[in-house]
Each structure stands twice: as structure tokens, then as C-alpha cells.
Specification:
It is built from five helices and 13 strands. The strands form four sheets. It has a six-stranded antiparallel β-sheet. A three-stranded antiparallel β-sheet has the order 1-4-5. Helix 1 packs parallel to helix 2.
Length: about 240
């Protein structure tokens, strides 16, 4: 059995009907004779995952039965003999990280958590421009370009990273509000308000502990500048 991405005409011998497929299809052939179509995106997902597992695509499909459709024509029903693409992805992930099979559900969950953590650390390091180790405390923050958390500094500098000083801003006299934590740029441009944090945002406690000290801050824009991804981290490599 083989896969062909090139457009082909398939004559369905059960209905004597011929279709011209020009795009967005994948032809499945046996001994060079095409016998079925699949949506290209779906079959490529399955093909990619089976290749990752080192499996041959020759076990993918078979003619299971004949079914009747609305036009009273009889057509072959193609069914998979493998798990679907999402399940294959889980299997491939487990084999990649655990190097054996079978693998328990908990082992897959643990490996997935480690993989996500590694990806997050790599992303943080790329935006902060500093080495980010596994034991470092850092915070990932997302918000859009209309958020009131966006400072004039961030609007003027769409992608920025650098060392910032953590400063506590007390509330107005008589107010019961928690003080704000303000981050001032150290490198060029210096002494600019880069970001402010209010209670109970997830990074607030971390910044309170580092009052008067330096931390790393970096952010980037995506979705054509409509969203921001920001990281705040300890200052150490």
C-alpha cells in the first residue's frame, strides 16, 4: 500500500463513477491501483506519527465492508487499523521520552509535564536573553494590546529585555489597597517604568520579596502586535 499526494482520477468500480480530484486530497493505492481518497491533512498526520514510531503505512487501511448511501450506490468503507493521529501522538511522545513500551498513564503525564517545563524554560531564556535554569523562579504573563497593564514604555518598545529595579509604591493615604510593585529599567533607557504589578497577580508575591533588588524582565509581541508575552525572572544564570 502506498501514499500519493499527486491528483489522480479514481474510478469506483462499485458505482462506475469517476471524479477528478485536483487538490486537498491524498490517494491510497495498492499495487499501483488507486482505491481510496483521504483528506491530505488527516492522512499526513497519521503518516507522520507512524513514521515517528517506525511503523510501515502498509497497515493503515483495509476495505472493511460495503455500505449503502443516499443514492443507493454501494461504496467500500475504509477503516483504520491503527489508533487515530492524537493517540499515535501520545504513543510517539511516550516512546521518545520513556524509551520503552508499554508505559503507564502516570509516566506519560510526568514526562509531558517535564517536556512542557523544558519548553517553557527555553521560551523564557529566549525572551529574557539569559540562561534560565530549572530551579529559577520566573513568571510568564500574557495580555493583549488593549490591556490596562500595558505601560507607555511597553507601547513604545514592542520587544524589550533587561534588568529592572523592583520598587514599592505605597497606596494613597487612607486607602486600604495593597501597594503596587513598580519595575524601573536599569539599562538603556534607564529609570523608565517598564511594568507595574498589583495584588493579587501571580508575580506580585515574588516582586514583593525582591523589593529594592534587581530582576530580569523581557517581553515580545505576537499576533501582529496585538498580544504580549512577558517574563519576569530572578537575576542569575
Amino acid at each position: 500500500m502506498s501514499i500519493s499526494i499527486a491528483p489522480e482520477s479514481i474510478k469506483q468500480r462499485f458505482s462506475e463513477y469517476t471524479d477528478e480530484y485536483k487538490e486537498n486530497c491524498t490517494v491510497i493505492s495498492y499495487n499501483g491501483v488507486p482505491f481510496a481518497l483521504w483528506k491530505t491533512a488527516h492522512i499526513l498526520d497519521i503518516c507522520r506519527m507512524t513514521n515517528t514510531l517506525g511503523w510501515e503505512l502498509s497497515t493503515v487501511a483495509y476495505i472493511d465492508s460495503i455500505q449503502e448511501d443516499d443514492s443507493d450506490d454501494y461504496n467500500p468503507v475504509i477503516k483504520l487499523k491503527l489508533p487515530g493521529a492524537p493517540e499515535l501522538q501520545v504513543i510517539a511522545f511516550a516512546l521518545k521520552h520513556c524509551r520503552r513500551w508499554p508505559v503507564s498513564c502516570q509516566e506519560i503525564l510526568d514526562a509531558n509535564s517535564i517536556a512542557k517545563a523544558n519548553d517553557l524554560h527555553e521560551r523564557a531564556a529566549s525572551i529574557l536573553h539569559i540562561p534560565v535554569s530549572a530551579d529559577m523562579r520566573f513568571f510568564q504573563i500574557f495580555f493583549d494590546a488593549k490591556s490596562n497593564r500595558l505601560t507607555p514604555f511597553m507601547k513604545a518598545n514592542r520587544d524589550w529585555h533587561g534588568e529592572v529595579l523592583v520598587e514599592r509604591i505605597p497606596p494613597a493615604i487612607g486607602s486600604k489597597a495593597k501597594p503596587r510593585m513598580r519595575l524601573l529599567s536599569v539599562d538603556w533607557p534607564s529609570n523608565e517604568i517598564v511594568y507595574e504589578s498589583r495584588y493579587p497577580r501571580k508575580e506580585y508575591g515574588f516582586l514583593s520579596e525582591h523589593e529594592g533588588n534587581f530582576v530580569q524582565l523581557g517581553y515580545t509581541t505576537f499576533d501582529r502586535g496585538q498580544k504580549y508575552e512577558l517574563y519576569i525572572s530572578e537575576t542569575r544564570g
